[in-house]
């Protein structure tokens, strides 16, 4: 624990070279994402561009979830609800003829932030396994509420006529323009979470993960910090939902099913918990595996389920953990 | 709302309640004794139903199918414990969540590959397939009464088992302080295995009993699992008594809410908005109930002592 926090808060000179190597990974990730549309479109395929956008949309939610799970130790099993709320804000407003992002985006963020605040007040009074189950239950509550919204499609979901406009301009109608909007959102969310993690706020959050009692004894109101983190993560989930609704031009209760929440946790864990980069890599790994395996069989999860069990049993640091293990071995350390 | 309808819905609520209890009992014991979160408990309920359908297809006899499916559910639970879960005791809760989530994915899609995605049905025993007249103009299906009776019988048996036998004493002791029980010379691994297998069998039993009423389909365990979570969270994790009372409460509140929400809302608003808002409120009701209970008592109504 001590080692982790010192490495990310106050790099000593000896670690400076290591820090540079550590920066190579996020730089590489965003570089690849930045040039992807240029390469893909020159090969004439827009399929890769929309797949890339989809990966980045879920990566925003996964990065936010990593803030909660990886740094706060708060295993939220209802994170998909925020994506759904953000998406429904877009869908419902569009159904009433309001298709402008200048209204839809703040509405999506506000709705998910409000839901995070209200449920967070209750959830964070509990801890450990209670917290897991309660976030799960609140996620289901949002899910079932969406399925009973008969005027907005109920179970079947809701088709959105067109992508959001910006002050009346159809800025993201173009696939590539939309891709770069998503890219900017992911980059912004990532940098924001990174800054947050190393700030005083982030240190309190991580301290509370290790020992909430001790943090309280030092004089921090742990509950407030956790609630703030929960609202921030929820709001970013809403941002992801806003983008998802625009990507698919469709909203459905399935966005907030508890399996989705489980998948988000898997994405974070697959990449490596508490690294933020890992959340992006994990999301890409998960969605690309899905894309690849579902080409063979409709029931690809029969293969993927046991893989998850194996990851838990044998590869606890996720892909990032495997990577650093590999580096360590190569250096002969 | 007529009295007859109210009685019928109360019985339906009881039936949902005892069903939830059968599932929640295993879940709360496994968590209480082993500190293990088993998301895969819901698929064990689903598996019970599928096994019963399969064995019915072979034997053509409900009772034989029931016995065989119970044995198979027990065996499968023990197998899961031996192969996967045993390695995970004492690990982080997140590891439990991910591993059991993987098992859910595997089994949900596994049954789809074996039996297909279409819903199956299990015919109920001829003798119990009719309806019984409870009062004037009040007919109620016998099988639902059987489910209620079976659930209550299991609850009573569990009470005797946990409160008045040696193994029950060990289970209670394990829920309070597993390390101490182990130090006193009890084979805690064997105890864990027994509790786990027993919980899996109870969930399977619930699946078998409900199969004649509901359709047997992949994913049928997921909804029930989350309701069971709500139940054990309200009841207090590790407490059988809490699970029993909370299960009945949730069963009644959910069923009555769904039947009467629109009617009640009509008292305060027009029929058209009531029809829109009613179902939404009805489906939120049990979660709101949970939120209120937890706000007042963060460890549930009947927290198991010692934790």
Average of the residue pLDDT scores of chain A: 86
Helix-strand pattern of chain B, N to C? HHHHEEHHHHHH
Poorly predicted tracts of residues of chain B? none
Could you tell me how far the N terminus lies from the C terminus of chain B, measured between alpha carbons in angstroms? Answer: 44 Å
Quaternary state reads heterodimer
What is the averaged pLDDT score of chain B?
87
How many E-type strands of chain A? 2
User: Order of SSEs of chain A, N→C?
Assistant: HHHHHHEHHHHEHHHH
The percent range for helix content of chain A is over 70%
Q: What is the CA-atom radius of gyration of chain A, in angstroms?
A: 20 Å
Give the end-to-end Cα distance of chain A, rounded to a whole number of Å.
Answer: 20 Å
Record the SSE blueprint:
The complex is a heterodimer of chains A (333) and B (307).
Chain A: H1 2-9, H2 13-42, H3 47-71, H4 80-95, H5 101-123, H6 128-147, E1 158-159, H7 175-198, H8 200-210, H9 212-218, H10 222-248, E2 250-251, H11 258-271, H12 277-293, H13 301-314, H14 318-330
Antiparallel strand pairs in A: 1-2
Helix pairs in contact in A: 2-3, 2-7, 3-7, 3-10, 3-11, 3-12, 4-5, 4-6, 4-10, 5-10, 7-8, 7-10, 8-9, 8-10, 11-12
Chain B: H1 3-34, H2 41-59, H3 62-83, H4 93-115, E1 131-135, E2 138-141, H5 142-164, H6 166-183, H7 188-210, H8 220-235, H9 240-266, H10 271-296
Antiparallel strand pairs in B: 1-2
Helix pairs in contact in B: 1-5, 1-6, 1-7, 1-8, 1-9, 2-3, 2-4, 2-7, 2-8, 3-7, 5-6, 8-9, 9-10
